[in-house]
Design goal:
Layout lengths: L1 H14 L5 E4 L20 E13 L5 E14 L8 H13 L11 E8 L7 E14 L1 H7 L1
Parallel strand pairs: 1-2
Antiparallel strand pairs: 2-3, 3-5, 4-5
Helix pairs in contact: 1-2
Length: about 150
Amino acid sequence: MKTIYRAIKKRLEETVPSLREVSLDTGQLSVSWGETSRPPLALPACLITVDVTQATNVTDLVQQCRARITLTLVTDIVTQDTPEEPYELAAEIYRALQGWGTEDFAPLTRLSATRERRSDARRLFTHRTVMETTFIDESAEIVSSE
């Protein structure tokens, strides 16, 4: 999962220069900041979560895994020149990742893209894109051979 996270982070930093921060989602948006406060992020930001949603044994120590990647775009809608700008930024993230993969994981496929309604941060635009990939996890094999 770490390999997928690092690759996606690097890809977004290189291909979507308007993002000021690309980082691991550690719950930065889960705390209520009220109407005037902001989460501790440089906006616009993209928060990344990687979860293994399915794993099948290939051997006792190697698994074929399906991973879900959640990308949360966070931007300040007050500073946007036009109402469409946050959606264009979400589209840039999609274009950077759809069909892109590495030798470590299969090309990414978008499963959904939805705007998140937030009552605690009325001036923030949050948009979640969920993507999926597959990969072979050999990390147990590496650990057991050491």
